[in-house]
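Input chain follows. Return structure tokens only.
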Amino acid sequence: MKSKILFAGLIVAFGLTMNTAAQTTPAQQGAPTVKTGAALKAKAAAPAPSATAKNQSQKTSVGKGNATAKASAPSASWTEEIDMQDDGSVETTEFLNDAKKGILYAYAEDDFTCANGEPEKAGILEAVYAAGNKGGHPVGSGYYIVSLNKGQCAAKKAGAYGCKFDAAGNPTECGAIAVNDATGEVAVAVVN
């Protein structure tokens, strides 16, 4: 219930700024910059564990702290070693494939760039839309969420910050971000 109220509040309070937000960069909108790598996009095209996957089970959520998402039902979960951001660094990544929503979630502790250009490391949740997703989004598009502590990356308060991105990986809306657990969709509010 709390996440639905937050989600609705973000939509109402910041609905007018979303169209202008889509025309600026993550840094201009107070959000960290995270690149969605080719390995993750390939996984979204065929969301299943590889032959080297470990810890295969059924789970209902993935992530930690403010970078968490809930599945619509118990869903396939596993861990793999992949390069999440095409930066040459391989991370242990936890996957959750919510087949009902058509969203592949991936969570890892990884490096990113703060809005002020400084490097940082934190928990990153990426959600990539698969074929047949409920929202009708292009396959490979999605969003990322970085869980920031107060003061980390000059954040005025602890919370979830990130961006929606298109199928090419280009950010479209960035700022404070909230996940609607019922749908897997997000609302984004520009941070000033």
